[in-house]
Write a structure and sequence with these properties.
mainly beta; 15-stranded mixed sheet
Length: 254
């Protein structure tokens, strides 16, 4: 018997997550990617010694659908030197939009020390809206505009968008990426890469669909969903996301 049933998979990027796959238990139950859901991924660093997948935080997304509109709430918590970073956000968009392209959103970034106290001068809050072909980003001190020159989306919205793609039949999507809510990265594409089977804990095999995001000014992002669309793993350079059970929507460290 092959000691490594995943040996035929690409060594990069999925090979970066192989230690975590050995203990990964896939979520159970039915899943409707076009409906309302809440999902949590453990954020891991893939840097350092071989066979290391070190947890550094969590990402929780909650999608709520009301009629033709959807709202995506974001909670991203990551350990940093001397404390943690917390990012919260809320994005509104048409529920059926292939890119989950938001028409308005808001976000807040804060740093906390090891005693769970906010660090002065690190609280940043902004709001954004799309109208008349332009995005306006504002805070309490300034307002600026972004011309996306066509389709666009915010990076966290892609965690929703990939779950609604149809696999091999998915047409490549070209857009401007708004990274971390307000950083503009043009000439980005999201496309189907391959279908592949992945073995996880207990010898269970998961049939997956793999999508790849490439663009100027950003590392490649690779997304794995199961055949129902549920997003299981993401690799972005030296950062990985591993699906886990839903976590409470309160700030906490990994």
């Amino acid at each position: 018997m092959n000691a490594n049933p995943n040996a035929a998979l690409d060594k990069y990027p999925l090979g970066s997550l192989l230690p975590a796959l050995r203990t990964f238990k896939p979520p159970a139950g039915a899943f409707d990617p076009a409906g309302s859901w809440e999902q949590t991924w453990r954020v891991c660093t893939l840097a350092g010694r071989a066979a290391a997948v070190r947890p550094v935080g969590r990402l929780t997304l909650r999608r709520q659908v009301a009629g033709r509109q959807a709202q995506l709430d974001v909670l991203y918590v990551r350990n940093v030197t001397g404390g943690r970073q917390e990012v919260t956000g809320s994005l509104a968009y048409p529920a059926a939009d292939p890119l989950a392209r938001p028409t308005r959103w808001s976000f807040r970034t804060r740093l906390f020390n090891t005693r769970n106290q906010p660090i002065p001068g690190t609280d940043i809050a902004r709001r954004a809206a799309f109208a008349d072909g332009r995005i306006t980003v504002a805070d309490d001190t300034e307002t600026r505009t972004i011309d996306p020159a066509g389709p666009y989306t915010v990076n966290w919205c892609l965690f929703d968008a990939v779950q609604r793609l149809p696999g091999r039949e998915a047409q490549p999507l070209a857009f401007t990426l708004i990274d971390h809510f307000d950083q503009v990265k043009p000439e980005t594409t999201l496309a189907f890469r391959q279908a592949t089977d992945v073995q996880v804990a207990g010898g269970k095999t998961i049939a997956t669909r793999v999508y790849e995001q490439l663009g100027r000014g950003n590392v490649p992002w690779v997304y794995w969903t199961d055949t129902s669309g549920r997003l299981l793993w993401v690799v972005a350079g030296l950062e990985g996301y591993i699906r886990e059970a839903a976590a409470p929507r309160t700030a906490n460290s990994a």
